[in-house]
Specification:
Elements: E1 2-7, H1 12-23, E2 27-32, H2 40-50, H3 61-65, H4 75-84, E3 93-96, E4 99-102, H5 106-114
Parallel strand pairs: 1-2
Antiparallel strand pairs: 1-3, 3-4
Helix pairs in contact: 2-4
Length: 115
């Protein structure tokens, strides 16, 4: 089992996800969004399952800093922005093979690790 987590070390929810899998001795590949953005392909994978709106952290400092609260972009433009500005993402983004979650989803993660 190899879990991939996208987030930042400063995000409490991301730290919870890292701790959750660490406590269960699950190998984690962590991508710090402050150092490296998620690929367009990865973002599309999450957007296809949850929709682009679910990936946007509208409460983030970066969202407010860019004054996006009044923006009315289409999904394609939002995906471009999320690729360019990864700190706009709702974190953590967690992937196990084709299973995906956005934000803290411990119940789902328990299902992944109990099998």
């Amino acid at each position: 089992m190899d879990v991939q987590i996208f987030g930042t070390r400063g995000c409490a929810e991301t730290r919870k996800a890292l701790r959750f899998f660490s406590e269960r001795r699950v190998k984690v590949h962590f991508v710090d969004l402050k150092e490296r953005a998620a690929s367009k392909r990865e973002l599309r994978r999450f957007a296809q399952k949850f929709g682009v709106a679910a990936l946007i952290d509208r409460a983030s400092k970066r969202f407010r800093g860019l004054s996006l609260h009044r923006a009315h972009y289409g999904e394609a433009r939002w995906l471009e922005l999320l690729e360019e500005e990864p700190l706009l993402l709702e974190t953590p983004l967690v992937r196990l093979d084709s299973d995906l979650t956005v934000g803290a989803a411990e119940e789902i993660w328990r299902g992944w690790t109990s099998g």
